[in-house]
Amino acid sequence: MARPRIKDVARHAGVSEKTVSNVINDYAHVSDRTRQVVREAIEHLGYRVNLAGRHLRKGRTGIIALVVPELDIPYFAELARHVIREAEQRSLTVLIHQSGADRAHELAALAGFGSTFVDGIILSPLALTADDLRDRTGFPPTVLLGELLEEGADHVAIDNESAAREATRHLIGLGRRTILAVGGRDDSGLGTAEARTRGYRAALAEAGIAYDPHALLPVGSFRMPDGARAVARALEEGARPDALLCLNDQLALGALRALHEHGVGVPEDVAVIGFDDVEGGRYSVPTLSTVAPDKAAVAKVAVQLLQHRIEEATGPDGAVSGVQAPQDRIVAHRLVLRESTEGRGRR
Known about the structure:
The chain has 347 residues and is of the alpha/beta class.
């Protein structure tokens, strides 16, 4: 049996093909009665919208790319789920690419992988520089996540500096004074780690606590083994912290292991707080206090902004449209307090 076409729906509903198209595209000027008749005809005939044809008529493929450093980092896996869900609601397909935090891979993604099959890119960069983004002529529309490389690119993130300041203030409010920043970096750069380090230092300054550069524990990457090694090394070298601000939950979970192996109680001796609110932190022993970004909001804003940029680039009917100035969109975060700072009596 032949696949039903839009003209078959129109004939069955007793309306024009244009009216059927208006209903499919959810145009507001169609009456409720006509909308109902057309939808009943669509359901009766089993008509399915040809999304590929619709996109191609507009000069698009309906495919966007999500590029993250590593998919087995829980934060990026959870974020990808939200991006896919948001894109599906907009009839978009998501291609997921792992860059490995490699500049060549990130540049290839920025250029649309050397082809025209991707309409736009949502990119979480770690290796790119501001110079890499300044001349994007001919590249697909791009929205950056996390790292703020320059003000000339669309960007979606939480306020990392404010979030780290809030988390550090909480530790100070618990009476903790010797706070190490696991994964902390020189705070002069534009990356997420640098922004969180600035927030950490600002909270110390507000409380009158002298900043010690040795309180920054560098890591090779932001994984559990790195957090465990950094904290174990600090303890073995004589550090006696009473709190750890870990710049992501993976580092914090590794830190919990190192503290346990060195006989340090959490939170009795050392309070620990992380970033990202990944699922593993809700099941660790003790459960992990963390800064929770609204990952669903990050995904929603990023996809909305990217779709808007795609439509600006090609127009709703394939025509080139005007382009507005780049946007820097900040989404909400909250401090989630669990056993690693509050003890077992409070959650």
